[in-house]
Amino acid sequence: PTWPRRHQLHAWHAKLLTQSTDPAAKQNAVEVLNVALTSLESTASTSDDSQTQKLMSTATYLYDLAWLHHDLEQTELATRAFERINVNHPTSRFWADATFRLAQEHFARGRLAPATDLVQQLFASGLPNDQKTDEVRPSNGVPALSASFSGNSLEPKRENAAANGATNPIVSSEIMCQALYLRAMIAVAEKDWATVGTWSQRLITEYPGHRLRWMSQFWAGEALFRQQKYGAAVERLIEVLPRTEERSEPWVAMTHLRLAQSLGHLDRWPEVLVIAEPARRRFTDFSQAYELDYLIGRALATEARFPQARAGYQQVLDSPTGKNTETAAMAQWMIGETYFHQEQYALAADAYHRTETLHRFPQWQAAALLQAGKCYEHMGRPQDAISAYRQLLKEHANCTLAKQAEERMAKLKPARPRESGNPTDAR
Fold it and tell me: Rounded to two decimals, what is the model's pTM?
């Protein structure tokens, strides 16, 4: 019972127990490994070498214990074990991997400040130029980076976390690359788009052959799009398309959508059709497919193909995920625009009023009332036009279109006063 290497027997016992797929055996392994740690901590160190070996063994047991807790879905216990390595074993060969796991877990739980601090610790540790890239742990590992539509699980394999026998913390190429990606995802969560671009670009530059490269290039393009730098976004995003022809993850679909949207902002509508129509056919399960439908409608309308454009807009209105969005309000309003350009003013007015009554987005409600008023003017119905303008001024008095409504109403023959004082329903 007093043998100094007794802890190793417990550790091997735990290792044998982990060979079983039975959760009860793994739970038993947890208990045995805790005994190994207790036994090790009670062993006196007789020299510096002995103390160093003790610290290395402690970190090893903690690392194995963390993964046992993880495999048993004991997340908090796994996190505590990783934290002990991060805080108490900064020279361990497991330090970098444990630190990354902690950062990833904090990010998954929305704790962005500690996640950022842990990632910065990895960056501060540096990267040896000759360090080999680690393998990747399968997707049933710790939770993947949880950006919306990230799509992949990217965890370094526990057995290859770092070179054996290292006396200084080593951040492998694999962990460093993933840390860069995680730092970009933290910036995404913070909506700090300039910072998203910075970290994504660093990954692209330093790891051009890594599997995360093209996903990072999407985020670099997304960051430019969010900063309204549409020309630069097109240059970034268009490079991703030929590299992802056989892939169908949500972020690939988003690449096509953002590229089409950027081209639309640049009024390059023929190119929008080239991107949006094949993407709509390809990504049938894409949750934002209605956005592609809207862009297709806009592009067709610019070519005066109004019936086809209306079909695209109707797809937005029929979409289960899109029908209650602002895009649906825009699509309904654009249906009115197609009729207006065809001088079918009665149909246009009806479409505008559907925008105003069915979609609660003030900007589009106000625009719909203004356009409905114009339709009534064209139809020689000044009373109804005035009623539409009055409704706009009453319900959206502070919008930018109010002045235009006042000016148009002033040019029309005043309506007869009504006892209620309420604007006439223009529908």
Answer: 0.83
